[in-house]
Amino acid sequence: MKKLITQLVLVLAFAVGAYAQQPVTGPLKIAQVSLLIKDYDEALQFYTTKLGFVKIADSQFGNQRWLTIAPPGQKEMAMVLVKAATQADIDMVGNQAGTRTLLVLETDHFDQLYQQYQDKGINFISKPAATGWGRQVQFTDLYGNHLVLLEVKTSHR
Predict the structure, then answer these.
(1) Cα separation of 101 and 98, whole Å?
(2) CB within 8 A of 143, min separation 6: which ones?
(3) Dist. CA 157–CA 108, nearest whole Å
(4) Helix, strand, or coil here: 68?
(5) What CA–CA distance (Å, rounded) separates 52 from 73?
(6) What is the largest CA-CA distance in the chain?
(7) Residue 8: what pLDDT?
(8) What pLDDT was estimated at residue 3?
(9) CA atoms of 157 and 153, how far apart (whole Å)
(10) Quick one: which of 6, 92, 108, 128 is 20 to 30 A from 149 by CA?
(11) Torsion angles phi and psi, residue 41, rounded to 5
(12) What pLDDT sits at residue 25?
């Protein structure tokens, strides 16, 4: 009987261990991304008045602020504006993706938005260019992060 109980315990332990190693299934999505900033109000001003984002949430919690923004109508994901607090954070402001693109803004109205961004003084670091997947132009935000305005070809959707 003792041998049977020992074998049963081993089988159950193996089954529990195997179950625990199973991959997570079901829906998973990116809800928010964080952007390190120097100042809440200047970052909010840039992203809302220059790029047309909208403020989703703005709450004060003691000396911390929860500030999220997103393009109009975007419900799947928001960008959290996070004030740099440490020297390491401060050093990353404007350089979160290094020399690569931090954020891609996709649109079906490329020419119209490009003109609006030019009129608002956005700093473009490239000219609009046709690519294998559509048209794009690179620009920077107020801190120097690289962003892309992209219109995807219908055949690549």
Answers:
(1) 8
(2) 37, 38, 43, 93, 94
(3) 12
(4) strand
(5) 11
(6) 84
(7) 46
(8) 54
(9) 7
(10) 92
(11) -70, -40
(12) 77
Check: CB of residue 153 under 8 Å from CB of residue 103: no
Using an 8 Å Cβ cutoff, are 122 and 50 in contact? yes
Residue 8: its H or E element: helix 2-20
Q: Which amino acid is at 86?
A: T
CA 62 to CA 42: how far, in whole Å?
20
**H-helix segments, 21-139:** 40-45, 87-92, 110-119
Looking up tokens 């332990």 gives: 13
Q: How many CB atoms lie within 10 A of CB 131?
A: 12
- Provide the 3-class DSSP secondary structure of residue 108: coil
Q: How far is CA 16 from CA 12, 26, 54, 98, in A?
A: 6, 20, 47, 43
**Which residues in the chain come in under a pLDDT of 70?**
1-21, 24, 156-157
Q: Of 148, 150, 153, 157, nearest to 133 (Cα)?
A: 153
Angle (CA) 151 155 157, round 5°: 65
